[in-house]
Design a protein that fits this description.
By secondary structure, this protein is α/β, with parallel strands linked by helices. 27% of the residues lie in helices and 27% in strands. Helix 5 (177-189) links the parallel strand 10 and strand 11 (193-197). Helix 4 crosses helix 10 (294-303). The structure holds zinc ion (2 copies).
Length: 340
């Protein structure tokens, strides 16, 4: 192995620089050295690079929390993996002993850190991760599909709360990568009406191919009227995959229906009439990252259930990562895969 490798390093204030960095090495017995096969650009990476930043990150770290690779070397204490195992990475490293980890809510861990955001991640040829963050995935699955494990594990955490039943009606607000994964999962769950609200014609086309039964441009069409028309009483389930559409979601849900808030936007301040929730017995649920949902996400990927290949729209070598960030910013991409 050479002594240095190319990596995309976050250097603060909107700067992502391609530079040579020292090869990572195993420092502790529970760590694994990975050869990264593919990584994808997440909306969070784009938020990290905004000025001012829309998401925190530690300057000096190699970005990318959605990546997959092969085990190259294992620490002395690692027994569950062997050399050449193909793995995906749960980037959120939790402590296992805080009050939330003890309550089986590791996604609320008080001492969490994240590979690719606060410590080095996957936009590089090699990466070191703790063995407990890894999950085996079949080498039959291509690397560019394996990178869906992270976003899909977050979406499955949401769909498990909703338990959509065959015949139910759903509304998905926003058809970015997350909204499209929700749409595809609702389709295979048997939802009969899947109304997707999205402004971008580019993304709308992907929503149509993902199983949407009605596409709505909320800027030009009356979303509320269309939902009422299709469902008579409002949708059984509404998902906000954008992060500031709670007010809209309340108008679209039937009495006794469920609202899932997935998208994150710290600036969103919904003005709501609280009594609607009381009077209509609405179930309002938040959902945040993954909670023991990597295994089902991997099963979904390995089974080919969702045809995820259709969502890979761009591929770039690491040297051209800035092109990938640009297409993501323009909203003219679904999944952008980077290969080191
Ligand atoms: Zn992400
Ligand atoms: Zn914890």
């Amino acid at each position: 192995m050479k002594e240095k490798m190319l990596a995309a390093v976050f250097e603060g204030e909107g700067r992502l620089n391609l530079k040579k960095v020292p090869l990572p090495r195993i420092k502790r017995g529970d760590e694994v050295l990975l050869e990264v096969e593919a990584a994808s650009i997440c909306g969070t990476d784009v938020h990290i690079l905004e000025v001012p930043p829309g998401h925190p990150a530690t300057p000096g770290v190699v970005l990318s929390h959605e990546y997959t690779g092969k085990v190259l070397e294992i620490g002395k204490e690692v027994t569950q993996f062997k050399i050449n195992d193909r793995v995906i990475i749960d980037p959120n490293i939790t402590c296992g002993s805080c009050p939330y980890c003890q309550r089986a809510m590791p996604n609320m861990c008080e001492n969490v850190t994240t590979l690719g955001i606060f410590i080095d991640g996957g936009f590089a040829k090699y990466n070191v991760a703790p063995a407990k963050a890894l999950h085996r995935i079949s080498s039959q699955v291509s690397a560019e599909l394996a990178v869906f494990a992270e976003p899909l594990s977050c979406v499955v955490n949401g769909t498990r709360k909703l338990k959509v039943q065959p015949g139910e009606s759903v509304v998905v607000l926003g058809a970015g990568p997350i909204g499209l994964l929700f749409t595809r999962l609702f389709k295979v769950s048997g939802a009969s009406e899947i109304i997707v609200s999205e402004v971008s014609p580019y993304r709308k086309e992907f929503a149509r191919r993902s199983g949407a039964t009605r596409l709505v441009d909320p800027g030009r069409e009356d979303l509320c009227g269309i939902v009422k028309d299709k469902t008579r009483i409002g949708a059984d389930v509404v998902v906000d995959a954008v992060g500031d559409l709670f007010q809209d979601a309340l108008k679209l849900t039937r009495r006794g229906g469920k609202i899932l808030l997935f998208g994150q936007n710290e600036k969103a301040k919904a003005q709501i009439s609280q009594n609607i929730i009381t009077r209509c017995e609405l179930d309002i649920m938040g959902t945040y990252i993954a909670r023991f949902t990597f295994p089902p996400a991997i099963q979904i990927i390995e089974s080919g259930l969702l045809n995820l290949q259709e969502l890979v729209t761009h591929r770039f070598p690491l040297e051209e990562i800035h092109k990938g960030i640009q297409v993501m910013k323009k909203g003219e991409a679904i999944k952008v895969v980077i290969t080191p």
